[in-house]
Amino acid sequence: MSTASGDGADAGGDGASSAAAAPAGRRIPPASSMPWVRNLRRFVGSGSGLGSEALMELETKRILLEIFKERQRKSAEAGSIPSFYKKKPEEGSISSRVQRLAKYRFLKKQSELLLNADDLDAMWVCLRENCVIDDATGAEKMNYEDFCHIATVCTEQIGQKCKRFFSPSNFMKFEKDDSGRIAILPFYLYVMRTVSLTQARIDMSELDEDSDGFLQPHEMESYIRGLIPNLAQLRDMPTQFVQMYCRIAARKFFFFCDPHRRGKACIKKVLLSNCLQELMELHQESEEEVTDTEQAENWFSLTSAQRICDMFLALDKDQNGTLSKQELKEYADGTLTEIFIERVFDEHVRRSKVGGGNSREMDFESFLDFVLALENKDTAEGLTYLFRCLDLNGRGFLTTADIHTLFRDVHQKWIEGGNYELCIEDVRDEIWDMVKPADPLRISLSDLLSCKQGGTIASMLIDVRGFWAHDNRENLLQEEEEQVEEA
Fold this sequence. Notes:
Distance between the termini: 155 Å
Largest sheet: 3 strands, antiparallel
Shape: extended
Radius of gyration: 41 Å
Number of strands: 7
Helix content: 55-70%
Structural class: mainly alpha
Number of helices: 24
């Protein structure tokens, strides 16, 4: 009995203590007595004991969690505007020095890969020694087998830098005869032009201080100044005229390669422009037959630059370095109309900072643009310049009233010159017939460009001499034919 009572007491004591640790009716053995539980948990936690469905569920949860985190990251980044402008390194900083050094080394490496004058001479000799003579024309030609053989010989004599010119795609660029042969001269001229343009691009890139692919006016002037010693027709230029010449020459590049007048010209556009080709024509020796007329027609010739400079000095009566409206009216012997001069100042001349801000005079750069537009009326750039002046109301098109207003001044100068009487309405109708605008009631710039007579029409509306040339075009054409026959 005592044993039972003792056991009951003990049991009661044990029941009280276990009631505090666990719910009634449940007894949890110590962890040390259940090692299989720990092993099971480890086994399930690793995933190795799960079936295919359970593994797929875990993989799905993992993927969804990654997608959720990626969306959270993008949402956090969306709160700020992405960076589209990177500040250029400060002058003199380590970053600026490294950038300049990298650019210098890159351009030097590209220059070393170019063919020099001796290499070009050696290639020409190799081409002539390994070509065939066409019996019909006497031209020196080569087929593709000759082309490959010459490539091997040139590579041995000159080096690997000439190999890129002898690719199959380059051979296919040239016109072939019935036997599949190409002439060696066009191929050699292609090589020379490629080398020349690449060297020009390297030289311009060296002058591009901010490495943005554009040249500013002073950078273009520096490039032209560096070319002068290598241009045969400019070697004898007076030293005191070099700076003025560079300003005049550089302005044509910006007139044609900077249509939006941002003050910088794209290097790629400069390389592909006719301006650079016209400048490079001065390489030919002056002993060759280069007439005074040809020199005057080339904007970059010394004769042309001096003519323009003398013209500006003659017009600048008060010698203040700018031209007033009254002074510009004397341009071309005063044959330009007053309304055109007024419109030039309205559209293309900035207000002066002196004189209370109301005075407006034309500086030398604006004068160069003015001359370039008048001497290149048939180009898109020249006609765009003039159309802004002809568009009296800035509407983007010309009406019959605009044509009548513009030609009225030409008609007045025409009569003052002792010419026959003419009807303004007839001239207006003739202009409409020449243009044939898309809209029969208005003439746009695109209409003038597409009719291929925009330069003539602009001359008729701004210059009495231009209208006289149009009115006497048949006689002038006959005189030109007679001069050609006599020559």
